[in-house]
Task: structure prediction
Amino acid sequence: MTRHRHRPMLRALLLSGALAAAPLLAACSDDNKDPAAPATPDNTIMLTMPSTTAQVPDPDDQVSDAAAKQLCDMMRPDIDKWRTEGAALGRVAFNGTVHNWAARNGGLNDTVLKDRGVIDKITTQHCPDVRQQALEVLDTSDLAGALAGFGG
Result:
């Protein structure tokens, strides 16, 4: 019996909810051909696009001595693994090392993409012994030639 006592209140709540929703539904209707007024003030959004005429920086200026040393330090212990794997698999691992090094140093991947020879320049200046061993193990005349996935 108490169930029926709450029905008028429930009906009133449903009716008030429907009445409150009616203007919202009308605003979404396609029947109204007038453009809806903006709900918020007109805000201006500014987008800045990078310049397409930017100068390509000199890769030697971007690679710090610390980053160069890190590349040598990452390559040095891998040379024995590359020797065991053989030149083909060693090159794959070498690429992984260079990608890892570039990512760790502020995204130098772009620098390597623009000039794969930067790896030869770095290793010639900072660790010629490691470079020479890598050339022999990877069976290549330069490290740039052993890089894949960096364009070329």
In short: Confidence is low (pLDDT under 50) at residues 46-61. The radius of gyration is 33 Å. The chain is about 65% helix and 0% strand. Residues 3 and 35 are 47 Å apart (CA to CA).
